[in-house]
Amino acid sequence: PEVWALIDDRAGNRSQCLGVADALGIDYQIKEIAYGPMAAVPNVLLGASFAGLTGDSRLGLKPPWPDVVIAAGRRTAPVARKIRALAGAGCFLTQVMDPGGARADFGLIAVPRHDGAVSGSNTLAITGAPHQLTRTRLDEEAGHWRGRFDDLAKPWIALIVGGSTRRRTFTPDMAYELAARASKMALLAGGSLLVTTSRRTGDAADALIEAITAPNRVFRWGEGNAGENPYHAYLALADAVIVTGDSSSMCSEACAGTGPV
After folding, report:
1. What does the pLDDT look like over 135-167, one tens digit per residue?
2. Angle between the 172-189 and 204-211 helix axes, to the nearest 10 degrees?
3. What's the burial of 81, exposed, middle or buried (CB within 10 Å: 0-12/13-18/19+)?
4. What are phi and psi of 217, to 5 degrees?
5. Greatest pairwise CA separation for the chain in angstroms
6. Which tens digits make up the pLDDT trace of 194-217?
7. Cα–Cα distance between 157 and 239 in angstroms, integer?
8. Is the dihedral of CA 245, 248, 250, 255 positive or negative?
9. In angstroms, rounded to a whole number, what is the distance separating the alpha carbons of residues 74 and 16?
10. Which residues of the chain have pLDDT under 50?
11. What predicted TM-score, i.e. pTM, was given to this entire model?
12. What span, in angstroms and rounded, lies between the C-alpha atoms of 96 and 87?
């Protein structure tokens, strides 16, 4: 079958889509989509439509139409429904997370339990979030980075830091407390911290880094070194992981490793 994965600008949505697509074990096409101002309109008003996309994104969605569409997040749902309208009823739509209406148009809706119950014969409740971190992928990352942290005492504790969400601000005080408690854990174990921040950590990253007292290696997001992001290597090599709870995708990826989380 011809499979399309709709990939937008949210890292969590992206990892969930690609994780599901990879697990199929067949070739698929990645369709990068970008949103315009109309994407903010509720799905019930957008309907099955490309109206929320930029012009360039629309140009990339053209025949031959797919047999299967994989998407994640509310904003992708109108796009998936429009593709099905153009492709015909035989096009199977798979949506991770609640599409925000018109659920009957989807062949499968995978809803994380932490998002609340969504009922229906086409609905599957899942724990956590799909992602791409298979054992093979982690072994590859470990091999690529092995030896680069050998100056640090073990055990290695990965500290994976997210940040603010719409519901809660990640403040410098929170960051300071997190760093202090993680440092204490590492020092008591005679080990070190492998630290990475994210785009959403923002200004709280300063407080976090300043408060770390254990031996460490820090990757600060956005400092021009994104090409060598050790995030996956940290998960592959760490003896234990501390992860902030603001992102279900980060928490699920942390559980892909072998150490306690």
Report:
1. 999 999 999 999 999 999 999 999 999 999 988
2. 30
3. buried
4. -130, 125
5. 61
6. 999 998 999 999 999 999 999 999
7. 6
8. positive
9. 13
10. none
11. 0.85
12. 20
